[in-house]
Amino acid sequence: MIFNPEHECMDQTARKKLQLANLKNLVEKLYTTVPFYRKKMDALGISSRDIHTLGDIEKLPFTTKDDLRENYPRGLLASPPDRIVEVHMSSGTTGKPVVDEYTQKDIDIWREAMARTLAGGGCTKDDIVQNCYGYGLFTGGPGAHYGAMTIGAEVLPMSSGNTARQLMVMQDFGTTMLTCTPSYALYMAEEAADAGVDLKKLPLSKGCFGAEPWSENMRKEIESRYGMKAYDIYGLTEIIGPGVAFECEAQDGLHINEDLFYPEIIDPETGKHVKRGEKGELVFTTLTKEGTPLLRYRTRDITYFMDEPCSCGRTTVRMHRLFGRTDDMLIIRGVNVFPSQIEHALFGIEGTEPQYLIVVNRGESHLDEVELLVEVKQEFFSDETRGLETLRNKIQDVMKSKLQIGLKVKLVEPKTIERSIGKAKRVIDNRKL
Asked: What value does the CA radius of gyration of the chain take, rounded to a whole number of Å?
């Protein structure tokens, strides 16, 4: 289902004209209302009068997460405080929180963006949406909630955690759509199996999952365990929350709501645009935001544009599912390794559970040592030692082939690795660099 055909199927020439007009307005607004941006643009000798084409966006300064933290709490506010109706922010576990402030117009745009997102996953007014993203300052819960209500669906605002209760409500209220992190979806599936709940017999037929990178094989695992379609969605607190991009029924790349968020892909080292279709760092400009609009925000997420027409009929550009982040990339003995690479390879090996942990140490020889803890299905773990040894060697061979580095594999019993009701922790890096 396409929620807003006028904008999602818009002629691309008309969309570019709209984007350019909104970009000029944004640059003028930021220059006149946010000292941080005025200082940056003055340093580059640029103003809105220098923006004649969308390509001129390259003349404008980037915004980074450090910029947002340094301007905490309200240094990037571009609207009078009395126009702000809602505030969200990141957890701040690695520094000052990142703040996103919304005017009523921003909330309305968020509703629209998330309605498009959930509709892309098949949501209609007849659905019952069990929303297991966290509520509160986190954007996940409210974003999905607003989107489902805008469509007219019934919302079960569960938030994350209390899995036994989640499963009870899922059965008693006939949930038809699930929204949460993919990690939590798998955890719930495990708990359901232990409780004797056959998820495939429930009305649940689809789910929208995001807030962390996840692989195609993890999608297959979720779809297999629930008997439903699993869709990838993308968003980040800095931009608006969830609703920036989403998969449609084709499950072939994420449509970017580019009338609202202008995307670029750059070389993370040079900051220059990569060739169309090449992999690089995703950058967004919030074209219509009023509260805390951002210019060329560097997401650190790695992807590439997919320009081929989509069978769904939308004309918006798509981005490939995330390959990882520039800041969660591990450099092991000079080789770039993303946890998503390990996940993708691991999930294709029979006998393993979709749970793993990467532990990196620096040994006495000063070389990086990687240990991969992998959960094994119960029937394999109770098998003879020889079978486990064969599985361990197979995993090591696959990883060597895929990653070009050797790592030590340790098979562990089911439910040994700590579960998460939010974003899963996949890496422990003990190196002191």
From this structure: 22
Number of residues that make up the chain? 433
Q: Which of 160, 220, 167 lies closest to 196, judged by CA?
A: 167
**Residue 55 per-residue DSSP state:** G
Handedness of CA 319, 322, 326, 330 (dihedral sign): negative
Residue-level pLDDT at 388: 86
- What's phi and psi for 243, nearest 5 deg? 115, 5
SS (H, E, C) 93-113: CCCCCCEEEEEHHHHHHHHHH
**Token match 């990838």: residue?**
232
Regions of the chain where pLDDT drops below 70: 93-94, 334, 365-366, 382-384, 432-433
Cβ neighbors of 270 (< 8 A, separation 6 or more) are none
Residue 368: phi and psi, rounded to 5, are: -70, 135
Say if residues 51 and 27 touch (Cβ distance below 8 Å).
Answer: yes
CB atoms within 10 A of CB 423: 15
CA 233 to CA 179: how far, in whole Å?
10
255, 248 contact by CB (below 8 A): yes
Q: Write out the H or E segment, with its range, that includes residue 194.
A: helix 182-194
